[in-house]
Structure to design on (210 residues):
């Protein structure tokens, strides 16, 4: 589903994504308020959400859409490379943040990634969240009992995710294969009852994991 107040932008994204054999556009909306009702009826797997729109912006729309027990994954799209948009969007429940000047391949890859439960967040944004977006409580304390259920290795990997490391960097740090890292992440998601990698980051920061 595409949400953007510019019809030409929606058409461009629709043309790009529809060219992929495994992707299809099933719905569109011109602002955040319209997006909420359309999403309920269309039940998309992934929503590409603009930020600055009339009536209701994409951040608030994302917050309301992802509040449902079963909801689509949201990928925030914006022309503005501002950390605040990324922080607010991720805190609202988005699974990723991407600039509109992304290449067609990058856009399609991002849609597939969030659909599979991964997150599209650059390490720069994650580290900025560490620095100023979310002030964690002192290390060694926790306000999230879910992390207590993790094994020591799972906790180490959750900490690495919260630090902003990519899967490849995690594999290198712990001398693991990429497939093993993905297996660990899936276990962590299941034990925490988390939607995706972004939730691990935010909850890990709040729990003082880093």
């Amino acid at each position: 589903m595409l949400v953007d107040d510019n019809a030409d932008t929606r058409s461009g994204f629709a043309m790009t994504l529809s060219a992929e054999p495994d992707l299809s556009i099933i719905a569109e909306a011109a602002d955040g308020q319209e997006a909420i009702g359309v999403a309920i009826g269309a039940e998309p797997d992934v929503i590409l959400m603009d930020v600055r729109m009339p009536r209701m912006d994409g951040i608030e729309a994302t917050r309301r859409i992802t509040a449902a027990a079963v909801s689509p994954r949201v990928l925030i799209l914006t022309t503005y490379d501002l950390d605040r948009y990324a922080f607010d969007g991720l805190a609202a429940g988005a699974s990723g943040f991407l600039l509109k000047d992304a290449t067609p391949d990058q856009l399609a890859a991002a849609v597939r990634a969030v659909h599979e439960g991964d997150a599209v967040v650059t390490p720069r944004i994650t580290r900025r969240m560490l620095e100023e977006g979310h002030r964690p409580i002192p290390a060694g304390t926790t306000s999230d009992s879910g992390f207590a259920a993790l094994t020591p290795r799972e906790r180490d990997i959750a900490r690495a995710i919260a630090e902003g490391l990519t899967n490849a960097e995690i594999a290198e740090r712990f001398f693991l294969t990429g497939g093993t890292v993905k297996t660990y992440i899936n276990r962590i998601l299941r034990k925490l009852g988390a939607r995706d990698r972004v939730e691990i980051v935010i909850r890990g920061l709040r729990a003082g994991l880093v």
